Amino acid sequence: EHLIFMTELHTSETGHIAPLARHTFGKEEHLYLRNDIESLFSAGSKSVNIFPIRAVYRLEQGAREHCVKVMVSVSKRRLRHAVDRNRAKRQMREAYRLQKEYLVNAVPEGYCLNVGFIWLPSQPLNSPTIHQTIQKLMLRIGENIRKKTEIVGNSRIKVYADGNLIEDKSL
Q1: Which of 59, 51, 60, 54 lies closest to 72, judged by CA?
Q2: Parts of the chain with a pLDDT under 70
């Protein structure tokens, strides 16, 4: 009933074609709980700006089925007309949906990532610009996460904050 786009198909041992990546963005991947949103915008969160979008993110300890949760926000102050705000949100969600593997692959096991994408300009923009910006933001967030976490061998993970070791645990 629903169309699911896939980046690649591969053949298993049985000869069946199976999807490698599903480009979906379901309710379980949305960041919508008030407590989660408040913690995202509280102290300890990081942000990355690449005009026209700001990304605010927070890496938290804990495991859940979907390790990355995302919210998009467009202020009424930035885009006055609801039609423009809805289009901007739709563009950001679509850009994330098609490229979310950048973030999913960057999150270490046992951790969760909450991300908020915030619209900055006061006029609508075209979709290719939004796609490129979201991709750059996600790559930069992934780099920052990899700098903060370091896997030592196959048995330990070290988490750094501001260059200081804050956690050293077994996998």
Answers
A1: 54
A2: 1-21, 150-171
